Amino acid sequence: MDIAVLLPCYNEEAAIADVVAAFKQALPKASIYVYDNNSSDQTAQVARDAGAIVRTEYHRGKGNVVRRMFADIEADIYLMADGDGTYDAQAAPELVQKLMDENADMVVGARAKDQGEKLYRPGHRFGNRMLNGVVRTLFGEGVTDMLSGYRAFSRRFVKSFPATARGFETETELTIHALKLRLSVFELPTHYYDRAEGTQSKLSTYKDGIRILSFIVFFFKEIKPFLFFGLVSVVLALISLGVGMPVVFDYFETGLVPRFPTAVLSMGVMLCAVLSFICGVILDTVSRGRIENIRLSYLSYPALSEEA
To answer: Exposed, middle or buried, 8 (CB in 10 Å: 0-12/13-18/19+)?
Structure first.
């Protein structure tokens, strides 16, 4: 089967040659693609000298690179990792084999806690656990290391993936895509190493954490609009009742409405609650149709067992 190793890179000149060599050794028959995200160093040339197929994505952001890689490359199995040397290339055959044995759509290389926990910054550890918990709460049981960039995919997963993310939220989108379509997903523990000397992390703990959390909320609205707008409707209705009930009690006692602006405010908030509920009902139908179309796109490609 055709296997493509995808390595998105930005300023990884110090590490990329060793990463390419490691994946060539682990998967000798695979094609190694390095997508340079408009680096300011010699990442592209070093990768080319190491034997990789090098292409450039000029729009900055890992999500933009993933979108381009998934669109351009044709293969039966896709293996994605970072170009900074943090992921264990020797685990690649195991990820690919698990994908094939289980006829799965995605296998996530979960970063082993005995190593990864020591190498993560405290903010990264907390953010990873918190964001994983939010996704499990909103979308159901998922993977334990949602932010891992080490993954193997089937062709049908890659070619049905909408890829709307621009930055580091792309791993979150990959996970939610699998949960949305209820695809077959597995995890395997893999070693996680410190970054190669001379490279720097591009992930901002707080800025990217907020972007990822916002992206999760956005997808919750897109995938489960009835629940999202239903919750908004309930909150608005409770506010309306809390503001308006004293006015109602005054009316029954005196026959007058002494706080007319409060009554108008309560009525307006209740109308917003009703409109929010109606939006949820309508958008739920739209969302179901969109998911069905993505599912049909997914089914238009053969399963791994058929390709084998």
So the answer is: buried
Cβ atoms within 10 Å, residue 243: 18
- Whether the Cβ atoms of residue 304 and residue 183 lie closer than 8 Å to each other: no
- β partners of residue 56: 36
Q: Find tokens 């290339």 and name the residue.
A: 89
User: pLDDT at position 112, please?
Assistant: 75
Q: What is the reported pTM?
A: 0.86
- Rounded to whole angstroms, how far apart are CA atoms 146 and 29? 29
Tokens describing residue 130: 């918190």
Q: Could you say which DSSP state residue 77 is in? A: E
d(CA 236, CA 225): 16
What are the phi and psi torsion angles at 34 (to 5°)?
-110, 120
Collapsing DSSP to helix, strand or coil, 190 comes out as strand
Q: What residues contact residue 304 under an 8 Å CB cut-off, 6+ apart?
A: 1, 76, 77, 99, 100, 103, 104, 154, 155
The pLDDT tens digits for 246-256 are 888 888 888 88
